Known about the structure:
Layout: H1 11-23, E1 27-28, E2 34-45, E3 53-61, E4 67-68, E5 71-76, E6 84-86, E7 91-92, E8 96-97, E9 102-111, E10 120-130, E11 134-140, E12 145-148, E13 166-168, E14 175-179, E15 188-193, E16 198-203, E17 208-212, E18 219-227, E19 230-239
Parallel strand pairs: 1-11
Antiparallel strand pairs: 2-3, 3-9, 4-8, 5-7, 5-10, 6-9, 10-11, 10-12, 13-14, 14-17, 15-16, 15-18, 18-19
Amino acid sequence: MLPNPCICMRFATLSLVLTTMASTAQTICDSLPIAYDPASVVFTGTDMSFGDSVLTVNVINTSATPMAYPQLRLVPITPLPPGMVMNTAWSVFASSWNPGETATAEIYFDAAQPIPPEAEVTFAVWATNLTPLLVDDSCRFLQDLTVNLNPNVQALDERSNVAPLVVGPQPASDQLWVELPPAEATGLIELWSCAGQRILSRAARDARNVIDVSLLAPGSYMLVWREGAAVRGRRAVLVVR
């Protein structure tokens, strides 16, 4: 099962996103008849192909107005734990958000190494696509969200069915090589954008596979190695020019 998000944005990029947002005039979400519930936050494992964990948070429409495809976004204010990446794209949390309705937004994460204890991270919480309350703009809630990304969550452990996968160079500009275990060099190698678009899919032919990334736009991507529906390994990839 393929999800919409792709968890593949590095913290340096996240900081840039946050700086850009902060540099523009902000609309405060709290001035609108909407709210999010910090007490509703759950951080748990997921079986999605991208991301081994998910943070869910409830968002409440306290207005008298229905909204179509509202979106929520979390932007780290403090650094993510080493080895963790997250989806920073807008998360559509309802197709139709009716008056008085509570909907659940899902933000996906991926951990490539054990997370240290008490991995507390603070996020800015943004919302958008709130027409007719807010047209062609986004807003930020006054209350930031602080979450302990608990390393005891089962999904943050390295999965037993994930085989060694080596990707380089990091960052890449022209070519990206993908090294698979020689006895297991089968299946598909896929490259996904942060918008959830599959950019490339090719058969794994050798222990060392070379992928041309010279025509890709600079940014973060997620490389996935799969056998049928089973994900054997995944790595965040950064393309630069």
